[in-house]
Write the structure tokens for this entry.
Amino acid sequence: MAFGIFSIERFYGIDVILDTLIIIISGLISVQSKKIYSIIKDKDYKRFSMAFALIGFAFLFKIIIGLTILHTIEITEINLFSQIGNIIENLQIINFYSILFFKIFLMVGVIALFLITNKNKKSQNLFLLIYFGTISVILSIYANFIFYFTISIILSLLVIYFYKNFKENPSQHRKLTFLAFLFILIGNTIEIFNVYSNIFYISYEILLFVGFSILFTNHLRIRNGKKKNKN
């Protein structure tokens, strides 16, 4: 006898597909950043590469969350209720730790991006961000919106930084970087309200995918441009 555990709220695994694409793009951004670093030797690109590698790992754990939700359980007639209890308990444990590691890796990745763009008083910023990041991850076990609210605050600071950077030195690369993080910020802010409607969750996934795609395209253009200048 087969029992299916599905998540109606999570669009029957569409989010798993989108998360997979986000992982691939995060990996590509990480690789492109490293290639740019090898050309111009700017350590910020090396750190950028590490930050997006962490974000990619975060979404890998998010996929595990989706897979536990979509898992199909095979159960025999003998000890039916005992088997159901054990399997559900194991899935709950996997789900809990997957959510925890998703939040830790994503928080560390976003904090790393913030530190790259804010070099003044770096040690003070690091302490405060780690403190608030840790608190938000712990509290989000009981109230999930706290985690996304904290991420949104950090992303807002990044968007402001990239906007100012674009206004001071206008260029297509800076404009695309600003737009990419703006999409990511809007998506993450929408996720705060996902308990009210399923549309918020899928909008979050789509906007993140768009933001990451713009960022990857921009990195590809930067690398090709630097390569031509070097030659």
User: Anything to note?
Assistant: The radius of gyration is 20 Å. Residues 80-117 form the longest helix (38 residues). Confidence is low (pLDDT under 50) at residues 1-10, 70-81.
